[in-house]
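example protein:
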Amino acid sequence: MKVLLVGKYINIGGAAIASYRLMEILRESGVDVNMLVQEGGDEDEAVFSTTRSRLKKWINFLRFALERLLFLRHEKDKEHRFLFSLANTGERLNRNKLIREADIIHLHWVNAGFLSLRSLRELLDMGKPVVWTFHDMWAITGGCHHSLSCDRYKQDCGHCLYLKKPGENDLSHRLWLKKSKIFKDRNITVITPSEWLRSCVRESSLFGKMEVHAIHNPIDQTQFKAVDRELACRKLGLDSSKRYILFGAASVKNLYKGFSYFLEAIKLMSQDPEAVEGVEIVLFGKTGEDVSRMFPLPTHNIEYISSTQTMVELYSLAQLYTISSLQDNFPSTIIESMLCGTPVVGFRTGGIPEMIGHFEDGYLAEHLSPTDLAEGMKWVLSYDPYQALSDKARSAAVRRFSRERSAALHVELYRKVLNKSRS
């Protein structure tokens, strides 16, 4: 059984990291698996890239730029520019050697100029069994990666909240029609990391009749575990006598990440001097100095995370990790933080309630309520004894998200899909 994982990147973004971790655990389980990405591959690690020259890098960039340019006249505003994908340009992989040799093609996140709708149709036309892990909602919508308050993906899209001129026959509806023609009656098995997204897929008009399985992303529980806090603080130039609230994302300015709600919650907390005594903020990801100056509390920027070990150190020195996503599927950072013994506070949305036990090992704030988000952070900061809450977070993550169980479920599904295809 030869399995090929296909995704845009190897280590940029949560979906890419999740697919690479899956490849690692599958190889440990004895599966013949490789990974095909557009950029950043390492053939020594069984990750193969379609980009082997500087010219090809330019072509990749031009494909991505062309998609953005074509969307420009439709976009509602700059905030929505990268939250809607046309998939109008991409690579043709049906002649790729690894694709042709694979028994199962396992798609992951393939947007940003990697695979177009035409590319997907050509892969499906090969007749090979296709497994597709949805890391967001793009496949089931007319173009958006998260539908937020809209449920028109259950019908035929249109009246899209991301578009300048929403209407019955707008861009989202036209893309939905294209997807409907491509995906109808296809041999696709869907995996979702969360039960929440599985329910969305089952209710969708595009994939509602297909086989859908909820299998969480694998995370190494031995790699993510608490390290000495004082040592972590020294390495990162922070004061171990302070209490740190951790917040971050690939880009904190991404609309989905809800940065403004986190900022407002911190401002509300700062009105209670006792609650924020000795409390400081640590931001990671693309932030910029302008962001740190917005906070009423001392704030530190750690923009470039060079290794998993650095992330472990960040989780270990933090008193709590806050995630204010407006909608999220299965943010691995929650599990990583909990495995390091750091409780998490987040909004009650998407797959997040499946990950955090409210008032048990963390806090689920009411959706889009900075007031309740602030209450959640205050609850964690004042928990006594804090070590008991830390231990609960670690234990809950170990119990709920076994890496080996994720691998076993994937292997079982591959065998089932392959046997079904052969019969």
About this structure: The longest strand covers residues 243-251. The mean pLDDT is 93. Residues 229-400 form a domain with the Rossmann fold fold (CATH 3.40.50.2000). The longest helix spans residues 403-422.
